[in-house]
Amino acid sequence: MKPARTKTPRKPPVKKGSQTSLKDPVGVYCRVRPLSLPEQECCIEVISNTTVQLHPPEGYRLNRNGDYKETQYSFKQVFGTHTTQKELFDVVANPLVDDLIHGKNGLLFTYGVTGSGKTHTMTGSPGEGGLLPRCLDMLFNSIGSFQAKRYVFKSNDRNSMDIQCEVDALLERQKREATPNPKTPSSKRQVDPEFADMINVQEFCKAEEVDEDSVYGVFVSYIEIYNNYIYDLLEEVPFDPIKPKPPQSKLLREDKNHNMYVAGCTEVEVKSTEEAFEVFWRGQKKRRIANTHLNRESSRSHSVFNIKLVQAPLDADGDNVLQEKEQITISQLSLVDLAGSERTNRTKAEGNRLREAGNINQSLMTLRTCMEVLRENQTYGTNKMVPYRDSKLTHLFKNYFDGEGKVRLIVCVNPKAEDYEESLQVMRFAEVTQEVEVARPTDKAICGLTPGRRYRNQARGGPVGDELLVSEVVLQSFPPLPSCEILDINDEQTLPRLVEALEKRHHLRQMMIDEFHKQSITFKALLQEFDNAVLSKENYIQGKLSEKQKVISGQKSEIERLEKKNKTLEYKVEILEKTTTIYEEDKRNLQQELETQNQKLQQQFSDKRRLEARLQGMVTETTMKWEKECERRVAAKQLEMQNKLWVKDEKLKQLKAIVTEPKTERPERPSRERDREKATQRSVSPSPVPGDVYKTRGGGQSVQFTEIETLKQESPTGRKRRSSTIAPAQPDGTESEWTDVETRCSVAVEMRAGSQLGPGYQHHAQPKRKKP
């Protein structure tokens, strides 16, 4: 019977060292596809194993007036046109598979424009398998002899695994075999010749340091993201010829470890490379592809092939799987074949093809935006929200960038000149992605059981219970002793029978001793061999441990150096921040002062403009006033001169009349004498009339007389008469000038409309014409 199983020792706590906070940048590689025709113009040149150079084609340079220059981009490694799939796998995918076996997650995706060789890089071609079949081949070469029996591990709907005992697993296997499913792959079936050449990998590859005290199970799943919806390519939908049922989209969920997974996705347990690739090929036939102007088989969706490795330790006897779910380690490697970005003016897409291209470009743009925000947050210490949920593609791989794992990107480019603009955008995306850092995955915890349990169980030749049964059979193989009772003194048969039995027992004892010596020698040899193996493993582990210690010491010294440098930089940053604060304060003060001065200048400018307008109005008004005054004075002077000239003319006329008048004296008529007496008795004398001056609406002034004009008539005392006689001289010795009423009333007070000069005097007398 089996011994009682001891309780599993508690695993020691993982020490939180400096490695938990270490980060590694995303590894970005570039692969250049060979030209389909040698005479085609090339726009990409490989400068070195880490640098490529893009130069615009001639036609593009002419169209853009030669503004674009040659640009160089650096990568972790550049693979030229003659690179084989084996060389690419050894550098890019081999470390990811090794990490997968050691319980670490990994993500590998190909990125590029349509027709750049992404699917060829991932899947391969007949005779030259791609990265996916080589990853499967390396995985099964490493864990082939350590795989658990089918259905020992069973997936559930919570993105985790359950363990079944071998009896339950056997029952489930018998149940599945009793109802076979023709769609379920089997390792005993022949390989499909359609993809047989793809998985026929000639180069043997195997991981080192595989944990031999554990059992492994491999599960694969295959999904596609089409028009921002997730579909399961391995889901078996019952065929209905009357009403076909379309495939149902899946939803994303988050498990208890904050990892994203596709709810309800089919996971198939596989036991060989052929079986795994057969599952992949079955899903590949369901993937959506279409014929476009640029690619005959263009992928219209993003495909994700997940390889999930489940690892569980053996029990203390090294015979069965440890039935503790907490000891299960699940690691996953995601191989992503992204659909190519494309421009509709080149593909001439319409209808569904146009919608597919729009969704593809939108998801790739979201991926680029997430990379830019991650780089900004890590470079400048900001805390911007990364838009993972804008696309199902970025939301699915959120835990790789926010959590831990190793991320690798293969940028596939086509060097033909027609793809220059698209290749330029791809290079810029790769340049941004290289600056994003992902947390380095931590090593899995040790279960605490004694190492070498599997080999110890094999050395014993089987379970402990079988050995106990064999020993019991050996112990019971001695013949029974005969009866030793002597009833007669002459009995001569009892003692000989006893002697014979004892001799047989002695002979058997001697044979057993010899067998024991042989078995002990064999056991000692096996024990010595086991000790040598353990010693060699201990030496190997010590060597590795010393190497790790050296690496850790080097990293510690590097961390100390970086911490000192970080403190120095923090001090400099603090000084710069203080200086910047002072400069910003000075800048704000100067800006306020500048704004104040600008306001003052604006106020002065406004006052100046108002003053100029006011002065301009005053100058215009004064100019008009003096123009009118000058006109008035000139008119008054002209009138005065005209009056003087008229007076002189009158005098000359009178003088001429006197000279030319005959000397005969005529008696005056009585009527004239009477008129003259009347004229002498009255005299009209004008007097000014008082009035008020008012401003009018038009801007001028008006005069309103307040009294009535009165005329006074009185006889003149010494009036000149119209006669040829000369007037007598005045008593004061001045000459008397003859005037009449018309002359005296020719001057009046006048106020023009619109004038601001006030009332003025104006002469209205018309010059009298001379008599002919």
UniProtKB/TrEMBL annotation:
Gene3D superfamilies assigned to the protein according to its UniProt record, in alphabetical order: Kinesin motor domain, Kinesin-like protein Kif23, Arf6-interacting domain
Coiled coil (residue ranges): 545-614
Compositionally biased residues, Basic and acidic residues: 662-680
Residue stretches of biased makeup (Basic residues): 1-14
Binding site for ATP: 112-119
Gene Ontology molecular-function annotations: ATP binding; ATP hydrolysis activity; microtubule binding; microtubule motor activity
Region annotated Disordered, chain positions: 1-21, 658-740, 752-772
Pfam families per the UniProt record, alphabetical: Kinesin, MKLP1_Arf_bdg
CDD domains: KISc_KIF23_like (cd01368)
One annotated GO biological process: microtubule-based movement
GO cellular component: kinesin complex; microtubule; nucleus
Compartments it resides in: Cytoplasm, Cytoskeleton
InterPro entries: Kif23_Arf-bd (IPR032384), Kif23_Arf-bd_sf (IPR038105), Kinesin-like_fam (IPR027640), Kinesin_motor_CS (IPR019821), Kinesin_motor_dom (IPR001752), Kinesin_motor_dom_sf (IPR036961), P-loop_NTPase (IPR027417)
Main location: cytoplasm
Keyword Transmembrane: no
Keyword Transcription regulation: no
SMART domains, alphabetized: KISc
Kinesin motor domain span: 25-436
UniProtKB keywords: ATP-binding, Coiled coil, Cytoplasm, Cytoskeleton, Microtubule, Motor protein, Nucleotide-binding
Family: Belongs to the TRAFAC class myosin-kinesin ATPase superfamily. Kinesin family.
Protein name according to UniProt: Kinesin-like protein
Organism whose genome encodes this protein: Neophocaena asiaeorientalis asiaeorientalis (Yangtze finless porpoise)
